[in-house]
Write a structure and sequence with these properties.
Layout (H helix, E strand, L loop, with lengths): L4 H7 L6 E4 L3 E5 L7 E7 L15 H16 L7 E4 L15 E5 L9
Antiparallel strand pairs: 1-2, 2-3, 3-5, 4-5
The structure holds adenosine monophosphate and zinc ion.
């Protein structure tokens, strides 16, 4: 996945503001934050989108959600509340084609989204 921007971040070719990392995932601050807390959580193994989740790779989702809860706690929004968002495909608003989960918090988030 040579020209995938998130794979480049994982390889250290593009800098990021890292929040959490382990052998399977990386979490970093969104470059264009929509809320006081806006972290992106991504698997290190490239997956295009939610459409490419299968029996082989779906276990990473549990790992990502556990990390999201821990990051929310660490950043002080677990009690106040937060939102985990995955955009999939064009009409879902996905602009980076490496699956990622937005962790948003620190303000009242509107629902439903636009
Ligand atoms: P989505 O629209 O769901 O595909 O979200 C992509 C997100 O990636 C957007 O919120 C962007 O602001 C964010 N983004 C794009 N490039 C970078 C980068 N180099 N570092 C951090 N966040 C980025
Ligand atoms: Zn990638």
């Amino acid at each position: 996945m040579g020209d995938c921007i998130f794979c480049k971040i994982i390889r250290g070719e593009i800098p990021c503001s890292k929040v959490y990392e382990d052998e399977r995932i990386l979490a970093f601050n969104d470059i264009n934050p929509e809320a006081p807390v806006h972290v992106l959580i991504i698997p290190k193994a490239h997956i295009d989108s939610a459409n490419y989740i299968d029996e082989e790779n779906s276990e990473i989702l549990a790992h990502i959600f556990l990390a999201a809860k821990n990051i929310a706690t660490q950043l002080g929004v677990a009690e106040s509340g937060y939102r985990i968002v995955n955009n999939c495909g064009e009409q879902g608003g996905q602009t980076v084609k490496h699956i990622h989960f937005h962790l948003l918090g620190g303000r009242n988030l509107k629902w439903p989204p636009g």
